[in-house]
Amino acid sequence: MAMQSQTDAWKYKSLSDFWLTGRGLDSNKSSASHNYALFSHKLLSAEDIDAQAMAMTAILGAVARVVDIVHGRNKFTVNFSSKDVRTDFAAKQIALSAEPLMDPPPGFLMADIVDVLTGMALHEAAHAQFSSPEYYTEMPGNPFMAVIRNVVEDTYVEHLTSLYYPGYAGYFWKYRRYEFDLEPSKWAHKPSQDLMENELNLRTTEFLLAMRSTRDYKSKIPRVNHVADMLKQIIYIDNPGRLEKLNTRSVTKKIYDELFGNLIQHDIAYSLPSSLLDYNNRGKHQADPADTSSRNKTNIPSDLQNLIQNMRQEQLQVANMSELMEAGLDPDYPPPPPPMVVFRRPVLDDGAAERYDKARQAVKPFVIRLRNRLSWANTRQVINQYNLPSGELDEDALYQAAYSNRLFKRSEIIETRTRNLDIVLLIDSSASMVYPAGEGISRVELARNLAALFVEALEPVDSVKTWVFGFNLKGAVNLMELYSPHLTNKARIGMSVAEGTTPEGSALKYAALRLMSEGRRFVPKVLIVIADGNPNPGPETKLVKEQVRKMKALGCKTINISVGDRPGEEYGYEYSIPWTDYNTVIIEFGRLLKKLVEEREN
User: Fold this and answer.
1) Which segments constitute the VWFA domain (predicted)?
2) What mean pLDDT is predicted for residues 505-526?
3) 3-state secondary structure at position 239
4) Cβ(465)–Cβ(422) under 8 Å?
């Protein structure tokens, strides 16, 4: 077979050298042959989580290049598995087991491990591209049929991908070698006292190794070898168009009948493959929660996962920067189309109300202070006057007085300086918001707390109307309506997330349009941006400055509350409040609002 004829060449070759030499993870150039050496031990021994994240981000870049080349427009996000990240074909997300990194086989170099991870990612993406939807929705309950179905489908998608992209067949071979051959005991048959169960497990295990092992495995059971040869003849053909028409479910049934045809069928439903349970869940890379040692090998901690995702996102931004610059400099280069903008209301999950309540409790001591800073607003004060000769009858005075003509009272409503105001809070929800913001919380948590502070302080003020939007870019510019005068469920503020990139210019533009359309006529408007990092390079950065100028011309004030390291003035915001503490934000915000009122009076 074509794939197996190259086995000897692949045994001694690292396919990822192309991506890793020159600018590998290890800057040591002293070795002429393998300048990256055994990097896994360095990765594990490094105490600096940033160093670990940088190394793993570089690996993801190498893996993602191959996946993008093979699957073209069918883009997948490639991440390492954590408790929050797993393979999700609907979301086009591939989760890689961290086991090759955390527990590398003896003698494996960096390129060998990247080969394995690339084969793992290609395998998952091949399923997404070539497996029919029924493969995911109709997996048989019979455990032995499920294993056979997996083996048939895995063999099918890998060979079909290898036909279209012959140069990448070696990645599948490396992945299979790591998975099935480096630990012989991992898939070895475990004898059982039950003769039927023992025979069922034996045949299933032998068939698995006959099809997936890279060592030209031959079973001692003639029936298994016959079935394996039959499947190879069906699948290992050289016509990809013809192979794509193959019905793998029908093939699975045929293989199953041949493999277990002389056994009592109803007994199969009551036995479990003792050594193949893990194989049924391949691709998810989620270890048994009770098995701590296994979980540490296959999954990485969530904080490391968040850091890797953020670094990877920044890496992609830098990679796209040259295209954006080229689009602006080369008249023959068509500019990229503007991203689609989507307003949506996030669907509440079970923890949203709890997260908002936590944010509300964190800012509770500061709510009244901020509200007092808004004393110029339309807040009501009721003053009651008693012992009057006319007015409303004071029943208490009537009952208590022996004789008096002062039995009346009058209530007077005094409104302080009447000023209406429409305010929009625009919260950065990009991936960089996972970074720490001080005080033991992340930036996204701090932004959530500030949103709770403004909403709780402004909600009782009759003359002020408030909107809260989160924004990020994931395929489209997402403007998430977290709170508005028409959407009074404050728990949605607990749905603020940290993912994607920072389309700050587009968010400003469309939030301002929403404010102008839904806000009240002739009412002063303030747009507050709570963000941490830089907007996406190119058009987005220019759009921030352009929109701030337009809003200033319309009389709308723009305030940037920076929860990161960036200076807000750099992007043209009229006012900037760097985050230090809640009191500082309250004092500065009150000062700016007072200035706004004085300007309106003049």
Assistant:
1) 422-565
2) 88
3) coil
4) yes
Burial of 45 (C-beta count, 10 Å sphere; 0-12/13-18/19+): exposed
DSSP letter (8 states) at residue 327? H
Query: Is residue 80 situated within a structural domain?
Result: yes
Do 107 and 162 lie in one domain? The reply is: no
Residues 165 and 70 occupy one common structural domain: no
* 3-class DSSP state of 558: strand
The span from the CA of 109 to the CA of 59, in Å, is 13
Q: What are phi and psi of 252, to 5 degrees?
A: -60, -45
Residues 6+ apart with CB under 8 A from 68: 75, 76
Q: Of the given ranges (124-133, 187-196, 385-394, 442-451), which has the lowest mean pLDDT?
A: 385-394
pLDDT tens-digit series, residues 111-135: 888 889 999 988 988 888 888 866 6
- Same domain assignment for residues 173 and 185: yes
Question: Which domain, by its residues, includes 533?
Answer: 352-373+419-601
- DSSP per residue, 523-561: --EEEEEEE-SPPPTTHHHHHHHHHHHHHHHTT-EEEEE
CA within 13 Å, CB half, 240:
11
The pLDDT mean for the chain works out to 75
Closest CA to 176 of 230, 234, 102, 126: 126
Cross-strand bridge partners of residue 415: 380
pLDDT tens-digit map of 453-491: 999 988 887 788 899 999 988 767 888 889 988 877 889
| Statement to judge: residues 425 and 567 lie in one domain | yes
- My answer on whether 197 and 260 are in the same domain is yes
311 is a domain residue: yes
Handedness of CA 224, 228, 229, 234 (dihedral sign): positive
